[in-house]
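task queued by scheduler; priority normal; single chain, no ligands, no partner chains; default sampling; output format set to C-alpha coordinates
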Amino acid sequence: MGAVYGKEGSPKQDSPEEEPDPNNGLLLNEFYLPPEVLAHILSYLQPILNGRRVCKVWRDIIDTVVWREKVLREVPGATTTLFQHKELKWPDFYHLWLNKPHEKNLIRNGSAEEEFEHWSARPNTFGGSNGSKWKIEKKPIGCDPFPAGIKRCFVTSYDWCSAEQVINLFDCGLSPNFMKYVRPDIHIEEWYAGRFDCGFRYCLKVTLLNRFLEAVDDFVFETTGHTSAWAKVEHVFSNYDQEVSSILFHHKGKDTQFWAGHYGCKVTGAKVFVTLPGLEDKGSC
Protein backbone atom coordinates (compact mmCIF):
# COMPACT_ATOMS: atom_id res chain seq x y z
CA MET A 1 0.00 0.00 0.00
CA GLY A 2 1.42 3.43 -0.93
CA ALA A 3 2.48 6.05 1.56
CA VAL A 4 0.09 8.81 2.58
CA TYR A 5 1.52 12.31 1.90
CA GLY A 6 0.82 15.52 3.69
CA LYS A 7 0.49 19.00 2.18
CA GLU A 8 4.26 19.46 1.85
CA GLY A 9 4.66 16.20 -0.01
CA SER A 10 6.43 14.42 2.84
CA PRO A 11 5.11 11.08 4.01
CA LYS A 12 2.52 11.42 6.75
CA GLN A 13 3.23 9.26 9.76
CA ASP A 14 0.34 7.23 11.16
CA SER A 15 -0.36 8.35 14.71
CA PRO A 16 -0.28 5.47 17.19
CA GLU A 17 -3.64 4.44 18.59
CA GLU A 18 -4.21 5.81 22.04
CA GLU A 19 -4.54 3.21 24.74
CA PRO A 20 -7.79 3.52 26.71
CA ASP A 21 -7.25 5.02 30.12
CA PRO A 22 -7.81 2.21 32.66
CA ASN A 23 -8.84 4.85 35.19
CA ASN A 24 -11.61 6.20 32.97
CA GLY A 25 -14.74 6.27 35.09
CA LEU A 26 -12.76 6.13 38.34
CA LEU A 27 -11.77 9.81 38.31
CA LEU A 28 -14.23 12.26 39.82
CA ASN A 29 -13.05 15.89 39.80
CA GLU A 30 -9.52 14.54 39.24
CA PHE A 31 -9.73 12.42 42.38
CA TYR A 32 -9.17 8.70 41.94
CA LEU A 33 -11.80 6.42 43.50
CA PRO A 34 -10.92 2.76 44.05
CA PRO A 35 -13.45 0.46 42.32
CA GLU A 36 -14.82 -0.84 45.63
CA VAL A 37 -15.50 2.73 46.84
CA LEU A 38 -17.19 3.68 43.57
CA ALA A 39 -19.27 0.48 43.73
CA HIS A 40 -20.53 1.41 47.20
CA ILE A 41 -21.50 4.90 46.00
CA LEU A 42 -23.21 3.58 42.88
CA SER A 43 -25.24 1.10 44.93
CA TYR A 44 -27.24 4.09 46.21
CA LEU A 45 -27.79 5.56 42.74
CA GLN A 46 -31.45 6.03 41.77
CA PRO A 47 -32.35 4.85 39.21
CA ILE A 48 -29.37 2.55 39.22
CA LEU A 49 -29.80 1.38 35.61
CA ASN A 50 -28.96 4.88 34.34
CA GLY A 51 -25.45 4.46 35.69
CA ARG A 52 -24.79 1.64 33.21
CA ARG A 53 -24.97 4.17 30.36
CA VAL A 54 -22.19 6.43 31.66
CA CYS A 55 -19.18 4.37 30.59
CA LYS A 56 -17.89 0.82 30.31
CA VAL A 57 -16.18 0.92 33.72
CA TRP A 58 -19.40 1.94 35.48
CA ARG A 59 -21.38 -0.65 33.54
CA ASP A 60 -18.99 -3.45 34.50
CA ILE A 61 -18.93 -2.41 38.16
CA ILE A 62 -22.74 -2.14 38.34
CA ASP A 63 -23.25 -5.49 36.61
CA THR A 64 -21.02 -7.28 39.11
CA VAL A 65 -20.08 -5.71 42.42
CA VAL A 66 -22.92 -3.17 42.78
CA TRP A 67 -25.78 -5.65 42.44
CA ARG A 68 -24.13 -7.99 44.91
CA GLU A 69 -23.90 -5.21 47.50
CA LYS A 70 -27.38 -3.86 46.76
CA VAL A 71 -29.09 -7.26 47.00
CA LEU A 72 -27.31 -8.19 50.24
CA ARG A 73 -28.21 -4.83 51.79
CA GLU A 74 -31.77 -4.32 50.55
CA VAL A 75 -33.26 -7.79 50.00
CA PRO A 76 -34.17 -9.19 53.44
CA GLY A 77 -32.91 -12.72 53.87
CA ALA A 78 -30.48 -12.63 50.93
CA THR A 79 -27.16 -14.28 51.72
CA THR A 80 -23.87 -14.78 49.91
CA THR A 81 -25.14 -18.26 48.99
CA LEU A 82 -26.99 -16.62 46.09
CA PHE A 83 -23.73 -15.46 44.55
CA GLN A 84 -22.27 -18.93 44.37
CA HIS A 85 -24.35 -19.33 41.22
CA LYS A 86 -22.00 -17.79 38.67
CA GLU A 87 -24.61 -18.22 35.93
CA LEU A 88 -26.77 -15.45 37.41
CA LYS A 89 -26.48 -12.07 35.70
CA TRP A 90 -27.40 -8.57 36.80
CA PRO A 91 -31.00 -8.73 35.40
CA ASP A 92 -31.67 -11.75 37.65
CA PHE A 93 -30.64 -9.76 40.71
CA TYR A 94 -32.44 -6.65 39.46
CA HIS A 95 -35.82 -8.45 39.34
CA LEU A 96 -35.15 -10.05 42.71
CA TRP A 97 -34.34 -6.66 44.25
CA LEU A 98 -37.26 -4.89 42.56
CA ASN A 99 -40.01 -7.40 43.42
CA LYS A 100 -38.70 -9.25 46.51
CA PRO A 101 -40.84 -12.31 45.67
CA HIS A 102 -39.80 -14.24 48.78
CA GLU A 103 -41.53 -11.65 50.98
CA LYS A 104 -45.00 -12.06 49.51
CA ASN A 105 -47.75 -14.56 48.91
CA LEU A 106 -47.65 -15.33 45.18
CA ILE A 107 -51.32 -16.37 45.24
CA ARG A 108 -53.60 -13.38 44.76
CA ASN A 109 -56.84 -13.18 46.74
CA GLY A 110 -56.21 -16.41 48.63
CA SER A 111 -58.86 -15.67 51.27
CA ALA A 112 -61.66 -14.13 49.17
CA GLU A 113 -60.73 -10.57 50.17
CA GLU A 114 -61.48 -9.48 46.59
CA GLU A 115 -64.51 -11.68 46.02
CA PHE A 116 -63.63 -13.98 43.08
CA GLU A 117 -60.93 -11.80 41.50
CA HIS A 118 -57.85 -13.57 40.06
CA TRP A 119 -59.52 -17.00 40.13
CA SER A 120 -60.92 -18.81 37.11
CA ALA A 121 -63.52 -21.57 37.26
CA ARG A 122 -64.17 -24.33 34.72
CA PRO A 123 -67.05 -24.29 34.11
CA ASN A 124 -67.92 -20.92 35.61
CA THR A 125 -69.21 -21.75 39.08
CA PHE A 126 -68.86 -18.40 40.80
CA GLY A 127 -71.53 -16.40 42.55
CA GLY A 128 -74.25 -18.96 43.31
CA SER A 129 -76.98 -18.12 45.80
CA ASN A 130 -79.01 -21.33 46.00
CA GLY A 131 -76.30 -23.89 45.45
CA SER A 132 -74.22 -25.46 42.66
CA LYS A 133 -71.80 -22.50 42.63
CA TRP A 134 -69.09 -21.02 44.83
CA LYS A 135 -70.13 -18.66 47.59
CA ILE A 136 -68.20 -16.37 49.94
CA GLU A 137 -68.82 -16.30 53.69
CA LYS A 138 -67.66 -13.43 55.88
CA LYS A 139 -68.64 -15.43 58.94
CA PRO A 140 -68.25 -19.21 58.62
CA ILE A 141 -71.55 -21.05 58.99
CA GLY A 142 -71.69 -24.46 60.63
CA CYS A 143 -67.99 -24.66 61.50
CA ASP A 144 -65.34 -23.30 63.86
CA PRO A 145 -64.22 -19.63 63.69
CA PHE A 146 -61.66 -18.70 61.06
CA PRO A 147 -57.97 -19.36 61.72
CA ALA A 148 -56.09 -16.31 63.01
CA GLY A 149 -55.79 -13.46 60.52
CA ILE A 150 -58.45 -14.76 58.11
CA LYS A 151 -61.77 -12.96 57.61
CA ARG A 152 -63.42 -14.69 54.64
CA CYS A 153 -63.63 -18.05 52.91
CA PHE A 154 -64.86 -19.67 49.71
CA VAL A 155 -67.69 -22.21 50.15
CA THR A 156 -68.65 -25.09 47.84
CA SER A 157 -72.04 -26.62 47.11
CA TYR A 158 -73.65 -29.98 46.24
CA ASP A 159 -71.84 -30.35 42.91
CA TRP A 160 -68.12 -29.93 42.29
CA CYS A 161 -67.03 -26.30 42.61
CA SER A 162 -63.63 -25.94 40.97
CA ALA A 163 -61.29 -22.94 40.66
CA GLU A 164 -57.68 -22.36 39.71
CA GLN A 165 -55.01 -19.71 39.46
CA VAL A 166 -51.83 -19.65 37.36
CA ILE A 167 -48.77 -17.90 38.80
CA ASN A 168 -46.22 -16.58 36.31
CA LEU A 169 -42.97 -16.63 38.26
CA PHE A 170 -41.18 -14.09 36.06
CA ASP A 171 -43.98 -11.59 36.70
CA CYS A 172 -43.38 -12.16 40.41
CA GLY A 173 -39.66 -11.33 40.10
CA LEU A 174 -38.19 -14.82 39.65
CA SER A 175 -36.34 -14.82 36.34
CA PRO A 176 -35.96 -17.97 34.21
CA ASN A 177 -32.23 -17.92 34.92
CA PHE A 178 -32.86 -17.68 38.66
CA MET A 179 -35.32 -20.59 38.62
CA LYS A 180 -32.98 -22.67 36.46
CA TYR A 181 -29.89 -22.40 38.65
CA VAL A 182 -31.11 -21.48 42.15
CA ARG A 183 -34.34 -23.51 42.22
CA PRO A 184 -35.67 -22.12 45.51
CA ASP A 185 -38.02 -24.18 47.64
CA ILE A 186 -41.67 -23.57 46.76
CA HIS A 187 -44.13 -23.78 49.66
CA ILE A 188 -47.88 -24.19 49.29
CA GLU A 189 -50.65 -24.25 51.88
CA GLU A 190 -54.41 -23.86 52.28
CA TRP A 191 -57.00 -24.17 55.05
CA TYR A 192 -60.16 -26.24 54.63
CA ALA A 193 -63.14 -27.20 56.80
CA GLY A 194 -66.57 -28.83 56.58
CA ARG A 195 -69.76 -28.40 58.56
CA PHE A 196 -71.04 -30.15 61.67
CA ASP A 197 -74.19 -31.28 59.85
CA CYS A 198 -72.87 -32.53 56.49
CA GLY A 199 -69.92 -34.40 55.03
CA PHE A 200 -67.59 -32.90 52.44
CA ARG A 201 -65.00 -33.72 49.79
CA TYR A 202 -61.96 -31.55 49.15
CA CYS A 203 -59.14 -31.74 46.61
CA LEU A 204 -56.05 -29.58 46.13
CA LYS A 205 -53.67 -30.05 43.21
CA VAL A 206 -50.63 -27.84 42.64
CA THR A 207 -48.54 -28.36 39.50
CA LEU A 208 -45.13 -26.90 38.64
CA LEU A 209 -44.89 -26.11 34.92
CA ASN A 210 -41.93 -25.45 32.64
CA ARG A 211 -41.91 -22.82 29.90
CA PHE A 212 -43.67 -25.24 27.55
CA LEU A 213 -46.46 -25.65 30.14
CA GLU A 214 -45.41 -29.24 30.74
CA ALA A 215 -45.67 -30.66 34.26
CA VAL A 216 -42.37 -30.76 36.14
CA ASP A 217 -43.81 -31.93 39.45
CA ASP A 218 -47.15 -31.92 41.23
CA PHE A 219 -48.75 -32.37 44.62
CA VAL A 220 -52.24 -33.79 45.12
CA PHE A 221 -54.21 -33.87 48.37
CA GLU A 222 -57.71 -35.37 48.56
CA THR A 223 -59.88 -36.02 51.57
CA THR A 224 -63.44 -36.81 52.58
CA GLY A 225 -64.61 -35.76 56.02
CA HIS A 226 -67.38 -34.73 58.37
CA THR A 227 -65.89 -32.18 60.73
CA SER A 228 -66.34 -28.51 61.48
CA ALA A 229 -62.70 -27.99 62.52
CA TRP A 230 -60.26 -26.16 60.27
CA ALA A 231 -57.25 -28.10 59.01
CA LYS A 232 -54.28 -26.95 56.95
CA VAL A 233 -52.67 -28.82 54.08
CA GLU A 234 -49.01 -27.97 53.41
CA HIS A 235 -46.33 -29.10 50.99
CA VAL A 236 -42.83 -28.03 49.93
CA PHE A 237 -41.43 -28.56 46.43
CA SER A 238 -37.65 -28.90 46.52
CA ASN A 239 -34.92 -30.41 44.36
CA TYR A 240 -37.12 -30.34 41.27
CA ASP A 241 -35.07 -31.32 38.23
CA GLN A 242 -36.17 -28.71 35.68
CA GLU A 243 -36.58 -24.97 35.36
CA VAL A 244 -40.03 -23.96 36.62
CA SER A 245 -41.74 -21.04 34.88
CA SER A 246 -45.24 -21.08 36.37
CA ILE A 247 -47.40 -22.74 39.01
CA LEU A 248 -50.97 -23.99 38.59
CA PHE A 249 -52.93 -23.92 41.87
CA HIS A 250 -56.23 -25.81 41.57
CA HIS A 251 -58.76 -26.63 44.29
CA LYS A 252 -62.27 -28.02 44.31
CA GLY A 253 -64.89 -29.31 46.73
CA LYS A 254 -68.48 -30.37 47.30
CA ASP A 255 -70.75 -31.87 49.95
CA THR A 256 -71.46 -35.60 50.23
CA GLN A 257 -75.23 -35.36 50.74
CA PHE A 258 -76.15 -33.48 47.55
CA TRP A 259 -78.07 -30.94 49.61
CA ALA A 260 -79.30 -27.72 48.01
CA GLY A 261 -77.38 -24.76 49.36
CA HIS A 262 -73.77 -24.48 50.47
CA TYR A 263 -72.97 -27.44 52.70
CA GLY A 264 -69.71 -28.42 50.99
CA CYS A 265 -66.16 -27.76 52.15
CA LYS A 266 -64.87 -24.27 52.84
CA VAL A 267 -61.40 -23.16 51.71
CA THR A 268 -59.32 -20.12 52.57
CA GLY A 269 -55.80 -18.88 53.25
CA ALA A 270 -54.30 -20.20 50.01
CA LYS A 271 -50.58 -19.41 49.84
CA VAL A 272 -47.64 -20.00 47.54
CA PHE A 273 -44.26 -18.61 48.55
CA VAL A 274 -40.58 -19.24 47.92
CA THR A 275 -37.57 -19.24 50.23
CA LEU A 276 -34.12 -18.08 49.20
CA PRO A 277 -31.13 -20.37 49.82
CA GLY A 278 -29.84 -19.94 53.36
CA LEU A 279 -33.08 -18.29 54.51
CA GLU A 280 -35.06 -20.42 56.96
CA ASP A 281 -37.95 -18.08 57.71
CA LYS A 282 -40.64 -17.68 55.06
CA GLY A 283 -40.73 -13.90 55.24
CA SER A 284 -43.78 -11.77 55.81
CA CYS A 285 -46.23 -13.39 53.40
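post-processing summary
- The radius of gyration is 28 Å.
- The chain has two domains: 27-100, 105-275.
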